[in-house]
Amino acid sequence: MAGESSSAGQGDSTHSLHLRRNPPRAGTQRYTDRFLALGRRNLFKLAQWVFAAVVLFFAARSLATQWNRVELRLINVQFGWEWIGAATALVLLTYALLIEGWRRILVAWDSHLPFGDAARIWFLSNLGKYVPGNIWSLTAMGVMARRRGLSAIAAPGSSVIMQTVSLATGTAIVMVTSAKLLGQPLLVGLAVLLLLGLLLSAPRFLPPLAIWVGNLIGRELAPPFVPAASIWTAAVASALSWLFYGIAFQLFVRGLLGAAPGEISSYIAVYTAAYILGFISPIAPAGLGVRELTLAAFMTQLGLANEADAALVAIAARLWLTIVELVPSGLYIAAGATRRSLPN
Which pLDDT value is given to residue 3? Predict the structure, then answer.
């Protein structure tokens, strides 16, 4: 009996030692998953920096080869401020559409913001896109959302969905306008059907896409439910914004060069394609370099400008849109500083 007890005790001791030496598989698996996720993020960051370096190198080389002709063209430029002013007003209207679309998607998180507060968060968080990495806008948006009493997930999550809707509608619009320029009515019809299909299926595929993006950047972004009406409202706002951007771009070209030959659809296609390619570039801040190269190349290919004029437009458009974005942000910053300095 004593032998059995001793044997049992020895067995228990051996079993306990075995447990101490071999941690639970669930804990090991969680540690492995975290390690692999960290490795993927670090590899993704490295790829971003390499891509950015390559893009900026080619952008600088392209600009250097065109600079002499651009400099000569710049001497003869006579700005049409009335056209540039109209283009600026149209861009600001486009911002208002995008902000309203974002507000509608916030409903998925049972979050509601007045338009003024939403505009302030939208403009100030947009400053993050000028920092390499493409995640700082979402981070800043989450911080400001918490200060407004919203969930830290609501603002960046809804922004990811809004950007996804915008990219989808923008891609469809590029297909429609490009097909029209090529004189292919069948392609135009297929592009329109693709756009409608994206709008109808958006409520289903966007939440899983938000989960995937959240895993990629290491943040929880998935909404509990995205109402179809919110998605479609955001899609309409996005589609109108791309059209307005293209028209504003044509007005800006006319104000800069004195003329804007070609159809409106050409300018919509060029600007939308350049913006999307710049946006999806992994790390180039605000699409720097990618957008300019694409804009100049497409303008030349479609006969909207010669190489020197196209390079001038690409550089000037970057400066113009940066100012249009920074001025409202600066006003919000100044207003916030003024409120803090006032006595209670």
Answer: 44
